[in-house]
Amino acid sequence: MHRVAVLVFDRIHSFDLSLPLQVFSTAHSLEKERGEVFGSRLYDVRVCGDGRNLTATGVGDIEMYQHTPPYPLAEASDADTIVAIGVARRQEPPAEALGLLRDAHQRGVRIAAVSSGGTRVLAAAGLLDGRRAATHWSRRHVIASRYPQVQVDTDVLFIDHGDVLTSAGGAGSIDMCLHMVRQDFGSAVAANVARHMVVAPERDGGQAPYTVHPEPGDAHGSLGPVMHWLRQRLGEPVALADIASQLGTSVRTLNRRFRDQTGTTPLQWLVLQRVHRAQELLETTDLSIEAISRQCGFGTSVAMRQHFAKHLKTSPTAYRRTFRSRHACD
After folding, report:
1. What's the pTM value of the predicted model, to 2 decimals?
2. Does 14 reside within a domain?
3. Which residue range forms the structural domain that includes residue 69?
4. What CATH number does residue 60 fall under?
């Protein structure tokens, strides 16, 4: 039987706590059907805390309920897997928990992080130094600024280094937990758990299709007007010289300003705007893929598929199937 210790702290997100408990408890509750293969139970799951009454919150840090973890933090020392749920955004992980994680890692215990809060705990413990770490796309800059030694990746649902795992949060944590079940007891068991939870055993792609990109605003400084001009002409062919002329500068200066203010080139930025517009049209209209590709400036559906594969790790058809608005289907 595999022992899983779930580390919880004050003001944890209630959804984050429920995810690993649901996956691992479902695995061992379904074991009655496969008892002749694995024995009595697959997992012994224990929620561990510092002995205090803790508050669980929802979206917007709204207090949902209070609870006292039934096991002390020290109980995690004997676990085969430790899952860190994470601390609230403005709190630091307790030193006792960080020390426990470091000691467990040295002993070869598998350690996983749920959502950006869990990733922050593992980063504070030094377990992610020099490594790629998954986190929610909206928390990328927070993690990167606080822990510059961590290579933050918001394109994936989870990352498994063998000894340490991190997840993107939300449903991405389900993907990570199912992956651990698959590692521990095989694909059939993981698929059975996924079927019971009515989720996909394995999802293709990563976070890219779910990421929200903010509209250009004051943060873009002098590029705001030219960005607006470009967005009004997504379906038209636009050359670098056209953009530079609109800005009243040279192509070289144009490239430098875009690189300084957006981290990319004008034409790469334009391609991303075309992708975002195509996403919107796929979600809200009945236009064909070919028509959308022309309206967004890709020219052909083949070209649009190539850009979707590169930037969203999916196809236009698959994206529409996933995100199509209900009113567009009626």
Report:
1. 0.65
2. yes
3. 2-207
4. 3.40.50.880
